[in-house]
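User: Please predict the structure of the protein below. I'd like the answer in structure-token form so I can feed it into my own downstream comparison script.

Assistant: Understood. Taking the following sequence of 333 residues as input:
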Amino acid sequence: MSKVTRGGVFAALVAGLALLTLVVAVVGYQSVLSAIGKAGVAGFAVYTLYWPLVILILGAAWFAVSPGLGARGLGVLVWARLLREAGSDILPFAQVSGFLLGARVAQAEGVPEDLVAASTIADITTELSAQVLYTLLGVGLLAAQLRGGLHGSALMWPMLGALAFLLIAAFGFVLVQRRGVSWLGGLAQKWLPDSVSRAGAVRDTLDAIYRQPLRLLAGVALHSAGWVGSGLGSWIALKFMGANAPLWAVLAVESLMYAARGVAFMLPGGLGVQEGAYVVLAPLFGLQPSDLLAVSLLRRARDLVVGVPVLLIWQAREGRALVARSPKPAPDA
């Protein structure tokens, strides 16, 4: 990592932390800490243990667009998806780190290289499509809730802008996929002589996946369930805090918050943007900003509690594999 890149990551982290601190200070530290205290250890434990169920759905969505894998493949992709989430939440470069780690562990577990790359691309496509649908749900609920009020019209434009950004990102990603794979293969030809043929294999596998629309529909459906499942987790946490929050309102806030995070993808984990979106959106749906800020902090704590051990396990497994591949010294004559 170059000094410029390290500097950019550090600057983004500092900016996110500053924004997070400002948002919590505006709402009030005491009210946020009180809400976290109401959730308690039991609430945090349930909230954390619930998360692997969502990961199981997301792993199944990846499996749905990975033809040719047996039953063991589902377990491999669930583990790879768990590692992808850990990398995205904790490591620099956010989503990119997660995608690379997930692909690496899937390939290390025996999934062919071309299928790993092609299914990752297809999985990202179906996930983006599901997020667009989820955001549409949030925008629709927001419009119904505000019914054209002054504050409503002022907020609808940023939300529609975030939705437009997701639509453009999804459409652009679909357009450049095949050409992008070929371009990267040609670019790497100088260092990897067989990169063009490997890129061709990825492109052929991707075409084969896209010729199976039922797999793509299953991926979109499972990712939609994953988005809703994530929102349900926040609703469960609010229940432990004693907040009387309707599920539909929590889902609306969650969908719009993730849309805002998508626009601010340069900030690690949407640091600060996630919290700011909660504070702005919560009152519009009759929710307490302090309660949703507490959920946000619990989510970040959960990401660390789950993600750090996952990354350590991965490092240990990588170390053992490296030792196993190392040539053993010849015995003395």
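That's the full token string. The CA atoms of residues 165 and 263 lie 7 Å apart.
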